[in-house]
Amino acid sequence: MKRKIILFALVSLFLGSILGCDKIPFIAGKKKEVKVIPAPAAIEAKGAIIAKVNNIPVGLEDLNDEIDIYNANVPPDRPELKINTKEQKISYLRNEIIRRLLIYQNALDKGLDRSEEVRQAVEKNKRDILVVENIKEVTKNIDVSSKDVEDYYNTYKEQLKEPEERQVSEIVVGSEQNAKDIYIQLLQGADFGALAKSNSKSSSAKDGGDLGFISKGKKSTQFDAAAFSDSLEVGKISSIFKTPEGYCIVKLEAKRGGSQKPLSEMWDDIKRGLVFLKQQQAIEDLTGKLSREAKIEVYEGEIK
Predict the structure, then answer these.
(1) pTM
(2) CATH fold group of domain 165-256
């Protein structure tokens, strides 16, 4: 994982040339005398050696690790940019990894690795990597039991229901008397959509009052109380009620959602969530313990 984090920071350096032509004489086979640069105390190559840049080897696993990271960051709508074939991998090796190693070696020649700025950056990266590794170490054995999952499901069963949505049509008018007149017409069999178009002052009037499928909270609390009432059946109209928009009548056209998924369908999601919560608690416990044992000084006055 440490290597992957470092690789990720470097992987975008030459992305524009990933699928370009071969520009490295040493790899292309053109004979040329090259300067042999002693390899620094380098990271060992992983897997079969697939290339060497002077004395620095590149392993097959190193290549595949980088390509995995690259592919994971390709936008979902651009799958053609992913590297999948052997030829694409070779092109990436030649035009990305090897070019980067050449520039790295040139930086060593210039002594850039000895600059204070680089030293600080390396130390910061090392610190961040060790933080990640320590968190992995602390949380690696955390798990939850079947009873934990079952108890959570039974406790929060109602909250775990799918959100209910209702297709609702509305008529909104400015006076209670007008609403009563319309209500009587509806009881006598008048078409709801036609009355909405000719009487409603809501923007939905042009659609015959149809709001489509909506969930609670999209409109006022008074609207929700009427439109999402358990007593309102599909195809029926509500009584007259007042909202900030005016006097309303709604018709329930259809319902969907609101069902309770069985535990078997939610098992994996609940388990992942509980494991995550336990991991967070373990990290909190660790930082709390370390904080109590450490000498921490914060100079708030220096923060501008």
Answers:
(1) 0.55
(2) Chitinase A; domain 3 (3.10.50)
CB neighbours of residue 289 within 10 Å: 10
Q: What is the mean pLDDT of residues 271-298?
A: 95
- Numbered ranges of CATH 3.10.50.40 in the chain: 165-256
Report how many helices (DSSP H) and strands (DSSP E) the chain contains, helices first.
11, 6
Residue 169: φ, ψ to 5°: -110, 150
pLDDT digits (tens, 9 = 90+) for 36-47: 444 445 578 899
Compute the chain's Rg from CA coordinates: 33
81-90 average pLDDT score: 95
CA distances from 37 to 52, 122, 277 (A): 12, 22, 50
Question: Which DSSP symbol is given to 254?
Answer: E
Please tell me the predicted confidence (pLDDT) of residue 10.
Answer: 39
